[in-house]
């Protein structure tokens, strides 16, 4: 809410959750209480959020450490379970919610990982891509590694103009997806 005030905005229309991991939905319930904006998530991840869970799937590399840290982090942060107001499927338009965009189901990281495609090719991709360090595709956690690769290829084929990752401080030009698919 502080960020909204800094932007001099009070018109939040939708809280779009890209996937059911607490670092993406952890403040959604509080934000909904403050703004009245509905929470939307792909239906395949809705139950994880409703239970306040973060299913990791298979962890690789340093991601394996998360199995030990995750329960402590969830407890320390007081993750609030919350039910979605809107369950999304691939291609669902959001115009009726006051947002010019659509949901893209991009499974792999989680069963219901999705992206929010807005306007002329702006795409909020959650954890499919990260710009923490050098830009890279998700390499730590997946419920299905093959589906994750297919989702990355699908997104690249759509030619987004700009990618906004869930982690990292900078957007990525859509053309950079080609190198991440390899």
Give an overview of the whole structure.
- This protein has helices spanning 2-6, 22-25, 28-35, 46-51, 66-77, 145-157, 177-181; strands spanning 15-17, 39-42, 58-59, 86-88, 101-105, 114-118, 122-130, 136-137, 141-142, 162-167, 172-173.
- By secondary structure, it is an alpha/beta fold.
- The chain has one domain (2-181): Ribonuclease Z/Hydroxyacylglutathione hydrolase-like (Metallo-beta-lactamase, Chain A).
- Strands 5, 6, 7, 8, 10 and 11 form a 6-stranded mixed beta sheet that branches.
- The longest helix has 13 residues, at 145-157.
- It starts with a helix and ends with a helix.
Describe, in short, the structure shown:
The protein is an alpha/beta fold. It is built from 7 helices and 11 strands. The model has no long low-confidence stretch (mean pLDDT 93).
Fourth CATH level, the homologous superfamily:
Ribonuclease Z/Hydroxyacylglutathione hydrolase-like
CATH class: Alpha Beta
Low-confidence runs of at least 5 consecutive residues: none
Tell me the β content: 15-25%
Mean pLDDT: 93
Helix content: 25-40%
> What general form does the structure show?
globular
SS elements, strand count: 11
Oligomer: single chain
The assigned structural class equals alpha/beta
- Radius of gyration over all CA atoms, rounded: 16 Å
Q: What kind of sheet is the major sheet? A: 6 strands, mixed
The helix tally amounts to: 7
CATH architecture: 4-Layer Sandwich
Number of separate domains? 1
* CATH fold descriptor: Metallo-beta-lactamase, Chain A
Write the topology of this structure.
Blueprint: H1 2-6, E1 15-17, H2 22-25, H3 28-35, E2 39-42, H4 46-51, E3 58-59, H5 66-77, E4 86-88, E5 101-105, E6 114-118, E7 122-130, E8 136-137, E9 141-142, H6 145-157, E10 162-167, E11 172-173, H7 177-181
Parallel strand pairs: 1-2, 2-4, 7-10
Antiparallel strand pairs: 3-9, 5-6, 6-7, 7-8, 10-11
């Amino acid at each position: 809410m502080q960020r909204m005030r800094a932007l001099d905005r009070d018109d939040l229309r939708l809280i779009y959750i890209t996937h059911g991991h607490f670092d993406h939905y952890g403040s959604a319930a509080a934000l909904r209480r403050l703004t009245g904006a509905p929470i939307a998530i792909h239906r395949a991840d809705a139950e994880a959020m409703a239970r306040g869970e973060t299913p990791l799937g298979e962890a690789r590399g340093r991601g394996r450490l998360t199995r030990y840290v995750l329960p402590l982090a969830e407890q320390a942060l007081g993750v609030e379970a919350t039910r979605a107001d809107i369950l999304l499927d691939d291609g669902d338009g959001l115009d009726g919610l006051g947002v010019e965009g659509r949901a893209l189901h991009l499974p792999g990281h989680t069963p219901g990982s999705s992206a929010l495609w807005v306007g002329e090719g702006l795409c909020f991709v959650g954890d499919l891509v990260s710009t923490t360090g050098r830009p890279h595709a998700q390499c730590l956690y997946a419920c299905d590694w093959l589906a994750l690769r297919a989702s990355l290829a699908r997104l690249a084929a759509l030619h987004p103009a700009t990618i906004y990752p869930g982690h990292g401080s900078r957007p990525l030009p859509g053309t950079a997806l080609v190198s991440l698919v390899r």
